[in-house]
Amino acid sequence: MTEPRSVLITGCSSGIGRHCAFGLQARGWRVFASARRQADVDELRAEGLSETLLLDVRDDASIQAAFDTLLERTGGRLDAVFNNAGYGQPGAVEDLPREALREQFETNLFGAQAVLRAALPVMRRQGHGRIAQHSSVLGFIALPWRGAYNASKYALEGLTDTLRHELRGSGVTVSLIQTGPVRSRFRANGELAFRRWIDAGASVHREAYEAVAARLAGSGEAPFTLGPEAVLAKLVHALEHPRPKARYHVTVPTHLFKALKRLLPTHTLDRLVRAAGG
């Protein structure tokens, strides 16, 4: 009997990570669903995920402990990683304290790279592996008042493009999944980060922040919002297709801005971006 393929997914407490964990398990994958809080890990297991891990991507010791457990259970094998953990820190660039920017990068970039450093020796040794990195339309288009998140995703894209070159011939592939608006706790988590770090009343951007705060607290959906199943479909292709793509675009805005960035002069594109994201 063929052993099921194993995949580690980070950031499974809700939204995209949680949906993809259940979706891949339904497809026969041995899913190691991870979250940084024990209560979330326990809930995932109670809801039917057979393998769960406590893993905080900001903590090297937590990553190592999770990998020790995973590799012990699989006999040293790991077929795929979906680096999904992340959040968006709102705020104008000039209002971001150094620590807010550092925390954004710790999760969205440094954490993803630390997980890869643990996974790649295993994949190189076995001669195969699939890596999917959760990026964003904001990994190639910069919207105002999202500087920390823009920067972290631009950096993730650069790191991943470099890694693709360095993995050539290893049997390990790496793909970026660039999402636009997808139903998740992204806005709720962003609101918490905004209120923690940004003194809106003292900022020259305070009027703009009123719209930012309303968007983060609102219950309505952005135009063209899709469910997390749209991400799962791209993830399945990245992990299962014989020739995975380097980039997968999810939602209309991602496809649209990818085309517009190629076609339009910078000043014209800037006007459209401000209209869309102001």
TrEMBL record:
Coiled coil: none annotated. Keywords: Oxidoreductase. It comes from Sediminicurvatus halobius. This is Short-chain dehydrogenase. Residues 5-185 form the Ketoreductase domain. SMART domains: PKS_KR. Pfam families: adh_short. GO terms for molecular function: oxidoreductase activity. SUPFAM superfamilies: NAD(P)-binding Rossmann-fold domains (SSF51735). Belongs to the short-chain dehydrogenases/reductases (SDR) family. InterPro entries: KR_dom, NAD(P)-bd_dom_sf, Sc_DH/Rdtase_CS, SDR_fam. The keyword Oxidoreductase applies. The keyword Cell wall biogenesis/degradation does not apply. It comes from the Bacteria. The lineage of its organism: Bacteria, Pseudomonadati, Pseudomonadota, Gammaproteobacteria, Chromatiales.
